[in-house]
Amino acid sequence: MREVLADAAFQLYLERGFERTTVDDIVARAGVGRRSFFRYFPSKEDAVFPDHESCLADMTAFLDAASDERDAIDVVCDGARLVLRLYAADPQFSVQRYRLTREVPGLRTYELSVVRRYERTLAGYLRQRWNGAENGALRAEVAAASVVAAHNNGLRSWLRSGGEGDAEAAVDQALDLVRTMWAAAPQSPAPATEDDEVVVMVVPKGAPMWRVIQRVESALRDD
Amino acid sequence: MREVLADAAFQLYLERGFERTTVDDIVARAGVGRRSFFRYFPSKEDAVFPDHESCLADMTAFLDAASDERDAIDVVCDGARLVLRLYAADPQFSVQRYRLTREVPGLRTYELSVVRRYERTLAGYLRQRWNGAENGALRAEVAAASVVAAHNNGLRSWLRSGGEGDAEAAVDQALDLVRTMWAAAPQSPAPATEDDEVVVMVVPKGAPMWRVIQRVESALRDD
Known about the structure:
Two copies of one chain form a homodimer.
Chain A: H1 2-16, H2 23-30, H3 34-40, H4 52-65, H5 72-88, H6 91-103, H7 105-129, H8 136-160, H9 167-183, E1 198-204, H10 209-222
């Protein structure tokens, strides 16, 4: 029933436009009574994004179950990928919805609040992982915002291309930027090595900082 | 007139609640006709945030005028500080509005779209600065999201404290985290030194990565 209503709503939004479609139109198309609509969806906007509530619940469950042994940034990147998979599961619907959302200010605002809920969920996980660390809450919010921005950049490229190509690859590449940055960031736990060991590095002075970091990391990983 | 209407609206929202205040109440309190309200504000929500349009315009003008010689991240951090100053100019109003916004879902959503517009403005500047650089657009979006998240973290701490203490210091500290991270990030231009020079670094293996970066940076700066 929920799915039938969401399908009917979405088809009407595409045919007539979002603003010109009434709830009465939707229930008539779906062949149900008016009150059924509001039993499943608080508003016309909600019917455009029928899967985000369950995706948020999946994300929360995933984060709750994640091992504290894993790198916290890796965990939130994997959490964000659950959203990508939701979109990639039905490319045609996702692309049509993306185009519809660009055109309707009310849907864009609705989408912003959904994105914000994902961001808060990821930030909440990081805050708990970095609890007690210096600036833990600040870092958690900045990291969650970075992950969401990178995820959405990859997702949008794929949506704008009409759902062609590999959505996961686009998002993975974007998330890799964030992972690299945070691997080099102040909050990273020190590698578990003896305090009195030293690494001697020789780097050309012209080398960009990210290459220096890569070398330090690989040196620390080597033994 | 605009200010008188915004003041009347805000006082009524505090006294009666946002939902229970009508536009008729507002114009009666301000002593003007109903159509005056809509001449200045498209909606009841807009009257709660009367200064963001001009602040967005100020931010755009500031970014347009910024020298390309300056570090791009430093420029967007300064751009974000314009928002902070808007809040810090009237602590009592800012704190009351913060509390009101927490309570009214429609105002929270409105605030989200304002924040998103600031973020897009900053991202647009960075995209143009990093035009042609590898993953320039992706980096621009992630950096803008980081700056906004850090700024808002500092701003919210100050608002939650009831507007006590130094708002600028709270935001500066938060933005410093982002500046440090991006100084170490892949897109940073290489320091202008001779290619054949080398730095030899000796670092305890247990040292956290941020300390390693600090040392590399200070070594490269030294001569």
